Structure formats: C-alpha cells, structure tokens
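In this section we walk through a basic example: taking a raw amino acid sequence and producing a predicted 3D structure, encoded as discrete structure tokens. The instruction is simple. Fold the sequence below.
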Amino acid sequence: QVQLVESGGGLVQAGDSLRLSCAASGRTFSSYHMAWFRQAPGKEREFVARINRGGDVKSHADSVKGRFSISRDNAKSTVSLQMNSLRPEDTAVYYCAAGSTLTRSPDEYDYWGQGTQVTVSS
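The resulting token sequence is shown next.
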C-alpha cells in the first residue's frame, strides 16, 4: 500500500523547465516500480517515464526522450520528473503511479496520485 501526492506543476513558457515531485507514504515504497503518465483533455492517459525499484533502470517515451528525466530517492520516498525544453504539446495533467510491474501501460499500475497540472504556453 502506498499513497502518492504530486506537486510542482505550473504555467511556463515554451523552452522553460519544471521539476515535478511525487511524495509517497507507506512502508514499502522501495518495493514499487514508479512511473509518470500524463493526460490532456479528450485524450487517453499517456506514458511518460518509468523507473525500477532500485532506480538504475529508466525508460522514457520517445516524445520526451532527451528532454525529461525520471529519478527517485528511496530514502526520501520521492520520485521526480525533471522536464526541460518544454513544449506546448507537453501541456497535460501529470500523474505519478506505483506498481509491481515495470511497464508502460497505465492499466498495470496499482496506485495513483491526484495529478498536477502542467501548462506550457508558446
């Protein structure tokens, strides 16, 4: 069991950077794979990035590769998403997720945060 709360979203200009954070509570945080997803109005929830339990295996969607970077700090029970060179098409609600399978499918994740809004203007 884990509870997740995202923060760090906001309104920025294209080309700017943001760092999203996900604070987790629970006794077994380090046992979960973690991921970031995003969802824009009228669209399906989209995979952004994932990271394994130990933090040494990472994967990013092609649309954000080279711009976004996922990381985690198991000692602090946090997961972060550093977002650089933001584009208007990155605008979405960003969600933190936890699960037992290292996957890109939102259906495979067991726990979700409430989301944080990221808006990128041109």
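Looking at the output, two observations stand out. The chain has a mean pLDDT of 96. Residues 67 and 84 are 5 Å apart (CA to CA). In the next section we compare this with other chains.
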